[in-house]
Amino acid sequence: MRATSTFREGADGNYDPNAPPKGDFEEKSNRDNFRIPAGQTHVLMDVEGPGLITHMWITFLGPEAHPWAKDGSANHQEMLLRIYWDGSDRPGVEAPVGDFFGGCFGKRSELISMPVIVEGGDSYNCFWTMPFHKSARVEIVNESDKPISLLYYNIDWIKRESLPEDTPYFYAQYTQAYPLVTGKPYTLLETTGKGHYVGTVFCVRTRSPYWFGEGDEMVTIDGEAIPSVWGTGTEDYFLCAWGLEKVLTPYFGVPYFDQWGIVGGHTSAYRWHVNDPFLFNESIKVQFETFGWIAPDESVHKRAMSWNPREDDYASVAFWYQTGTPTFEARAPHARDRKLPNIERLVIYVADLDYGQINTLATDPLPRLEYDGRRAKVRIDKVVDRYPEHFDRPVLFVPASADGENVLEVPFHVNEKEPLRLLMNMGHGPDLGVYEVSLDGVKLGVQMDFYAAKVEAREYHFLDFWPEPGDYTLRLECVGKNHLSSGSALMIESVRLRERRPRVKEMALDIDNDWRTNPIYYEGT
């Protein structure tokens, strides 16, 4: 059997769910999708059992502007997937569409594994077997202020005459902690009943520099005093070693990992216990310890070490089967509360500053420009139109000057003395140069080579400091180019001052450090 979005034409020419699929030569036969307005719920499947769902396929437009959705669309974090078994008033599956399929924090990522496949980051498939006795109802709630555009789906299921009475149901539940409670384990699942735990999707946004994942997994079975499953570290649970990096395998993987050890880094990982489930007869509790490395200015030991309580932002989906009714109390919050809290204290989108630039589209040819003193005549290259996965805003593109001595200065103002991190979101590309950065004449970091064969984005972090209120100038100066690069241009999206977690302000260990004579950058280890 199949529940599908295929077009069914009623007597009035509009969609009628009770009509047969339209299968003729009219173009209307190809209108196999739905537009779900903001705040509305769309039912994908509502059938009577007994039966079992064997496969789900879903796709829709991404959040960026599109000719068929000029103002953009909901992202997959804002779409809440709910599946109800046998008429229950509480969903057995409740998770954002993205997180259920391993794509966290609204970021689309390809995922290739045994039970879940997201081909190209936009074709969402799962092969979990989902049995039901009386009925199954699958719905998506649009919790965005934008529509879900071009929603297509096929849900395959087998209708049965009967199922054994003790057949367990499939469950998946989203939960989050923004941020973690200091020093307490993070609970992915706690329920009573009989069943087996089959998978984890795990997402982290770091609030401290250095490595977050020293905490062990702890799985408590049937109320035992000491967990019988006790791991050796977060990366070890996800079957990697010495940290995490982007990888996709049948039973474990890391679909998204942007940068190692920074403040504000994003990680999503999955682990499927298809061949090694955690079995329980009475109850199960699945937790992670929340310890890791942190910087000396937020450590009571005043030094970097591997076993410190962290306060990162966590989100997860637990997947399990069980008989009876789960007692896990967690529920998915509304999409507005699933969005990560803003940790930027100041963002200067450089393309918004006045350099006398020429505003051209990324597809336009590069104009011939020359420099006028210290103010570059530059253009705005709307890279966001071509590379939305890298940049959220237009990017300032500074063409190479005739003598190769490109200089760009970015002014900004600080209102309050507090612990901040200075960073930039930069572009890499085939025609970009090597640059040095300084703040009010103080050189920071090492030379940055912005060459790459294809355009991509990367954050560069430079300084952890307590700046006094006042005006500052960040300066980027070209010092050469990679031998593979065709030029020494510059591509910059923003300069940012990112907040450090409250613990840093409370401890104030570096408040009296003079960053001009002793610039400090706590680089992740």
Task: Summarize the structure in words.
With 525 residues, the chain is mostly beta strands. The protein contains four helices and 38 strands. The longest helix has 6 residues, at 502-507.
Total beta-strand segments? 38
Spatial gap, N to C terminus: 52 Å
Uncertain stretches: 365-377
The largest sheet, given as strand count, sense and whether it forms a barrel, is: 11 strands, mixed
What share of residues are in beta strands? 35-45%
- What is the number of helical segments per DSSP (H or I, 4+ residues)? 4
Average pLDDT, rounded to a whole number, is 92
Task: Name a few traits of the molecule.
38 strands; 4 helices; single chain; 525 residues; eleven-stranded mixed sheet
Strands, helices and their partners?
Layout: E1 2-4, E2 34-36, E3 41-48, E4 51-59, E5 79-85, E6 93-96, H1 97-100, E7 111-112, E8 116-119, E9 123-126, E10 130-132, E11 135-142, E12 148-159, E13 169-177, E14 186-192, E15 194-205, E16 217-221, E17 229-230, H2 234-237, E18 247-248, E19 252-257, E20 266-272, E21 278-280, E22 283-288, E23 291-292, E24 308-309, E25 313-323, H3 335-338, E26 344-349, E27 358-360, E28 371-372, E29 375-376, E30 379-381, E31 395-398, E32 407-414, E33 420-428, E34 434-439, E35 442-449, E36 456-465, E37 470-480, E38 490-499, H4 502-507
Parallel strand pairs: 6-13, 27-30
Antiparallel strand pairs: 1-12, 2-12, 3-11, 4-9, 4-10, 4-12, 5-6, 5-11, 7-8, 8-9, 13-25, 14-22, 15-20, 15-21, 15-25, 16-17, 16-22, 18-19, 19-20, 23-24, 26-38, 28-29, 30-31, 31-38, 32-37, 33-36, 33-38, 34-35, 34-37
